[in-house]
Write a structure and sequence with these properties.
This protein has six helices and nine strands. By secondary structure, the protein is α+β, with helices and mostly antiparallel strands. The strands form two sheets. Strands 1-2-3-9-4-7 form a six-stranded antiparallel beta sheet, with no helix packed on it. A three-stranded antiparallel beta sheet has the order 6-5-8, with no helix packed on it.
Length: 220
Amino acid sequence: MDETMGYGHLEPDEVENLKIGARLRAARKGSGLTLEQLAQATNLSRAFLSRVENDTALPRLPTLIAICKALALPVGSLFTAAEESLVRADDVLPLVPVAGGEVVEWLLTPSSEAIVQLIRASYPPGGGSGGELHEIDAEVEVAHVQRGRLVVSFATGEVELKEGDTLTFRAREPHGWRNPDPRTTTDVLWVIAPAPWGLRRRAAEAEATQSELAAIQGAH
């Protein structure tokens, strides 16, 4: 197979800026293939495929199609822009405190993001979630203390975190948190996965799909 570099329909500067190697490498590893196995499947040399993955070689379109076919990867996905969403500092969304009072937590990820939720919190001395334990409709919750101390309470006991400590636990486990320091503010980064509304969205979509299937089956 011709391994010559270049795309006839692209301008030289466009070809130079194409970076598809990382996506091809990720697709290959996701498929559980070695470079040698991909070389055998495409009748291309291992050295050439390695250069493609390192963006030092750009295959002709028929060659690229052969590589993508072996990886079960749509060719167009190599050239689509990466999905991203930027939240500027001025656009951070304040969250309503669990225990009332002034806002001390801010959502750093887009409100539409369903996979993960990142929250920046700044708890004044003695501040926190209040006396009751709470659970979150998610799978995993992570607390990373950037400054000060944080006590996370569970039904079975407490864990005290100091600056730099990170605690990971199940979000549905009833828990609470507080800043035990009488003088210093505690800054915390919370990571929740998936975002609570993400699970509800998935449940709603699954219910809608089941309803559609039931309607189709009922029509036959």
